[in-house]
Fold these 3 entries.
Entry 1:
Amino acid sequence: MFKEIIIIVVLFVTSNVMQSEQTRSCNSTTKLTVVFRQREEDTDSTTQVGKHMATTKLTVVFRQREEDTDSTTQESFFIHFSSNFDTIAIIFTRATSNIVPELEEPLSSIEKGWKSPQLTQYQRFWLPLRFLSGVMACRERFEACKNDIILNTTPKSGTTWLKALTLTFTISNQARHDFHNHPLLTTNPHALVPFLESNLYADGQIPDLTNLPSPRLFSSHLPYELLPTSTIESSCRIIYLCRNPKDTFVSLWHFLKTFLPEDEPPVPMEEAFELFHGGISPYGPFWEHLLGYWKASLERPERILFMKYEELKEDPTFHCRRLAEFLGCPFSTEEERQGLVEKIERFCSFESLTSLEVNKSGKTGVPGKANKNFFRRGIVGDWKNHLTAEMSEKLDQLSQQKLEAFGLTYKDVGK
């Protein structure tokens, strides 16, 4: 039995230290984050951490959440220590290719190419390590309701736009006619539709979501395979928006530059491209992320709507109607006659959202990025201004190899 306590321990491990019964050597100082769960008989956590310190030469800082009365985590990484603690997660915050812990599930070292965010591989996917505790807490504790709406994307695939549209469709009929008092006028879409893993469950916190009005509207970058079980098993609705991998990569590269200090140069695009092509990107591999939702949408089309960014840009009226119908709030004949569909399109457009003062200033959510950083160009085909012909061909070939067998294609604009 385990006490229902989370203890987060930050370890600064120096070269050639001993951990447990094995030696794990490291060529440079490495920061590790380890999450322990404590057995019920371990009443003195400081003593147990001290036992570990006796064999590892490390600096320890830990935090205990009194309010977490049921905080076990499933499907985590394990490493065995001689103390009575069981490690339930181990995260590397520097490249640690020479550290080989005894894990029940292998943990890949963080690649050096992406300076930020730092990534770690979990269940085949590369996750931002600062959100890993939030991912685990979300998977374990989030309880989906039948009327929930969950928006899913890979990063930089039209997430902000999808949030604005979905929010407008789901608010009351009277409110969606009133653009003068619309919440988007004063609040960024990411604050109105929070991310599960990086906002609501950030740092492993457990929010109380029971009093939120229905339908509850959430978002996530998690692959389908990593969604909370309740999300997959419930009758909640999932909307997935995908984007051409070329534009996705270019937009992602520009966005991740904003995480770096002003005096630090970004990762060269050529290096970042090789990582992306090799499947290493936030929440990637990109193609496996798409396929998870694509296959699920074919199996359960009444619950999962699969949309494409390029098609939404090309014919927004048709796809806005499609989205509204899926959400259970179709446009009435009178609303169609009044041109409400077109009004919503214009109100939620890139040009409209970027012109709002709230999106020119201020910060939103985790990691507290400036609102303006969520908007760049919002166009289709910008990749041709950045990628070489060879890069384009490599992504085309990989996409064909990965996707076409499952009937999934995307419009290659700008070729």
Note: The chain has two domains: 2-109, 138-406.
Entry 2:
Amino acid sequence: MASKEFESVGCVGNQNPSVSQTSQIINMLYPTEITDNMIDEQKKKRQINKILLALQTNMSENNSKYNNLTIGERIKDAITTLYNYKKHTDGKKGSKTGSAVDLGKCDDQLCVMDFDIKKDLSDEKITEIRNQIIENLPSNVGLVKTAHGGLH
């Protein structure tokens, strides 16, 4: 900073300016519109930080809401009954053959992955692959083994 500005607000030598003196120096060195823009930018940054904090809090609450539910509780409204192995019966109901999960009706925090392991591998190799998959998954991941031995 220029020494003229320091002297004009009463700062002498190596003396550190007070807060009010610093404000006076800034007002002398920078035109009002620049300092106004700087203040506006600071206000914008504070507003953005408040919004980000609110979003982070909301996301944390949503995550804990879903993490405390079982898989069954999370998919109960997304289950479709299958008749004759089909989701659509064209008005004719045959025998009930199972259920399917409509992932579009599930919460966004749920992901289903289907691991297809070749059926022509030996039982030992299939077990080894399945165990490797399980070991590499995070502890908060739930697994379902299907009636046919598939892993989801």
Note: The chain has five helices and two strands.
Entry 3:
Amino acid sequence: MKLQPSLRPPLQPWMGMPWVEAWNLPWPVTSEWQSTLAGGTQRLPRCLGVALAKELIFTGRRLSGMQAQALGLVNHAVAQNKEGDAAYHRARELAQEILPQAPIAVRLGKVAIDRGMEVDIASGMAIEGICYAQNIPTRDRLEGMAAFREKRPPRFVGE
């Protein structure tokens, strides 16, 4: 059997991203005689559980952005605007919320979450401890503590 390439971007690769915006993309799977490549058979069960992952993959059911959000596959579902860039604008809004945070702490938090999900919880806690230890000597940590004491917004510099 020859595998046909998808005519639209598959959702599966996005499941590994830090956050996901949906705008009613279909879930391309077996109903189109496509392979569920791009990690869908591995990522989907980890997100939804084995039974629901099998149901979605075996039936080829398409999910709207709202359904994907309700299942926890995406963080936000946005209605498309006339310009076709509603998800882009929502992603920018989210980025604007992240930007004022301490960049080193954000990066280390991402590492702790991503690596911690690959191991058992005890190992994940150890990874978190290692990441925290890397944050202790930073100027940003000291700035955050000073800003808290002085009741002012912090001014992080990424050091």
Note: Helices lie at 40-48, 50-59, 65-71, 86-98, 103-116, 121-135, 139-150.
